[in-house]
Design a protein that fits this description.
Elements: H1 2-15, H2 20-42
Amino acid sequence: MGIFMLVVGFEKIQKNRKEFWGYMFILISLFIFFVSVQGLIMNA
């Protein structure tokens, strides 16, 4: 899901440079990656 949102965010930014949702998708995908890595580390 995180990779999908990252790709969609980059596509939106490439189509329209000032697209708010493109940056929002990238931020959300980075948050998903952070939470998943933190969950793996805490449960190890």
